[in-house]
Batch of 2 targets.
Target 1
Amino acid sequence: MQLSTPPLRSAWIEIDLGRLKRNYELINQDKPKHLRLLSIVKDEAYGHGAEAVAKVALKCGADFLGVSDLDEALALRERGVNAPILLLYERQESELPWCVHHNLTCCVGDLNIARKLAGLAAAAGKRVPIHLKVNTGMNRYGIAWNDAGPLMEEIKSQSSLHLEGVISHFSMSDETDKSFAMLQLERFNRVLDELKARNISVRLRHLCNSGGFLDLPQAHFDMARVGILQYGIFPSQVCRRIAGIEPVMSVKVRVGTIQQLKPGDKVGYGMRYEATSNRRVAVLPIGYGDGFPRVRNMGSVLLHGRRAPIIGSIAMDALMVDITDIPAVNVGDEAVVMGRQGADEISVHEVAKWKGSVSYDILVSWKFRLPRIYLPAEGINETFSLRLG
Ligand SMILES: *Cc1c(COP(=O)(O)O)cnc(C)c1O
């Protein structure tokens, strides 16, 4: 027998590129015309796969991509992405030659880095765009908002640097209390005033993440950096909604085996569940080794459009659900671990609650041992695959 490609495992993640495209259409309709979009594709696009998301986002009108690490940017360049890529956060000196060579746009919040970058750009005969990174209160990265003058002067004096952008980041933009966000906005405006006073004009001023984009139109400026919203997830329960936005990612698994329990039978490691009556149990080959939160006797999955409660402890590669009330379930049936099935949905926010964490954490926690299956979007003909170690 000739063997070619081995079959995919019976647990997988579906990435619906049609939904990603529709989310972009809805965001485009919602946003002011002048506002540009930067698609945040760090951490493999929050687990969706950076190449596919980047290419669809650019097709749908995003102008810029944003990543955290040099590696992430180089991987995109290698896969033929030539669009502007902004490296959020600080660079190590040793990374700068790579940034210049591959036309990656750096955030700069440090005099020494500005000088080093200028020297490398001049040596390469280039004038490289940079974004001035300003700390307006997050106290993570960037130059302090009230101490940016010398850095502005340095950038202005370097003919191999072009100050294309100014960036800052909100600590809290998606909750009801916007008072700190307003203070950050005020500080950001002071920085812009200072640039103007020095006769430095900047094309791309940007402060908003998804929460800011939704709730703080007065902070839109020239570009919004959308991360979680493009993936169809609202950053909080209280932020503004855009109707029709839907999650791009679903997690699915096929029933591996079915067990019949008698009263007194136990289930799984630690014997954390004991049957008190005859129960029918489906075993699903997905576990905390795939990124499922390590909960016990908590949560549920969807089978035949209905909720089957999780019983016992989650194992590395398996979890068990009670299907006594869903008699139609058979081995091989598709269960939805996160996403929609029939009229019901297990949302990323619900899974986050089980874990005591946030939706962002759940999205990026799914391991790459779960193959990503891409459902195509109309008008996007490229096919993608992602099956990393
Ligand atoms: C991750 C990130 C974003 C995107 O945030 P979302 O809440 O997912 O929209 C925007 N800007 C910076 C600097 C980030 O690190």
Note: The pocket of pyridoxal-5'-phosphate is lined by residues 40, 42, 88, 169, 209-211, 225-229, 235 (CB under 6 Å).
Target 2
Amino acid sequence: MVFVESRGNDGVKPKSVSFSEAILHPSASFGGLYVPKELPKLDRDFLLQLPKNYKEMAFRLLRLFDIDIEDSLLQEALELYDKFDDPNNPVPVVEVDSNLYITELYHGPTRAFKDMALQPFGYILSALAKRRGENYLILAATSGDTGPATLETFKNRPNIKVACIYPAGGTSDVQRLQMVTEDGKNLKVIGIKGDFDDAQNALKNLLASSAFQETLRKKDIHLSAANSVNFGRIIFQILYHIHSYLEVVQKGAVAFGEEINLIVPSGNFGNALGAYYAKKMGLPIRKILIASNANNILTELIKKGRYDLRDKSLVKTTSPAMDILKSSNVERVLYDKFGASRTRELMQDLQEKGYYELTPQELASLQEDFDADFSSDEEVAHTIKEYALDKNYLFDPHTATTIKLYKKYAQDCNVAYSTAEWTKFAPAIWKALSGEELRDLEALQAISQKLGVVIPQKIAELFTKPIVHDLVVEKEKIEEEILAFL
Ligand SMILES: *Cc1c(COP(=O)(O)O)cnc(C)c1O
């Protein structure tokens, strides 16, 4: 499998690169992304013969992609799914309502779906760096879930250092504790006085700083990225859609070959892109249904063909991992449907004019694969309460945004994705259930008592673990701290 660039080639970078090159150096010409030149096809016999075991299934699928990673390394990376709650079933698919199955992607070490991709990806990236004798720095600005999952996967791995910046006071207690209690000599976690935008801007300033670039050069450190535009994450996010389909067939919900819908709570569109690629490869998917919160820019794109950042500002919601206006992976769908020169044009419009508009034909093409809707925080709270009390199924606010689309498509068979465990967003859930505002620890206990659900060890122990990273600084101090760390 080779990778080309979503905005075309600038004549300086190579015209195509291998998988390992695309994941070590993920930035492509003109600010574009690496995209697979071709996807393998899933034929009927191949699908029917896939092993039931998740790791074995994943291995067979990854071999189909023909990437330049040898069997033993892939197998070692996939062993990380053994750290999930049930190594024999790391990704449970649960029947929750009539024609509604929920695939729980959160059974990994940090209790959110980022582990699905970051666990094996981190292992592979570090192994490639070590083999080449190169050192890499991963910079992450996080609003909550990416930070813990990135730290967890790279902790004590060779040839990789991670610096992670989070907005102090801008994450939940659980998310903050997951980061500041993570020990590992190669990790630096810094809280900044400011919000997520300030954290991202601090990173941008750092990247533009000559002192920083000079230090990287002197120390021979390369920069890479572990955010969801790295194809090394996307590839692992194709696999569980195929698993979900085979599971609902196995459960007798549909006959093999019948189409289902996938409902994806979306932010940066990595999860949804994985679903799109699976559909293109031949998985029987009717529609990919994109669920959002009040930051409903994806709904507008899919319903109206317009991606418009003008007059929009980020709204803080109870599903913060979806509080996003620039959804990076949409670009890969644009490339796939409309080609590199049109993608470059659209992305340029977005940058220069603050919006882009698809033609009616382009919009029709998008709507062949996607539909979308969004839920307000009130709707989310109502849905959490309805499912917890009437259907005996507890989910987090991100997952709750999928239910509106399920209700619209309830005559079809649907798989919705649960992207975080309830424990990561306990205050919002307790408020939905009781109207009362509590902090994380008290909310966890209250929910556990009321609904008889168990707080997993990984979460409970956070509140007594020693804090290793207590640094909170003004955003101007970030550079100094990171240079000292390097
Ligand atoms: C990251 C995240 C999302 C959004 O996923 P994308 O792949 O960025 O669209 C949704 N829910 C949770 C809990 C997340 O952590």
Note: Residues 87-109+232-455 form a domain with the Rossmann fold fold (CATH 3.40.50.1100).
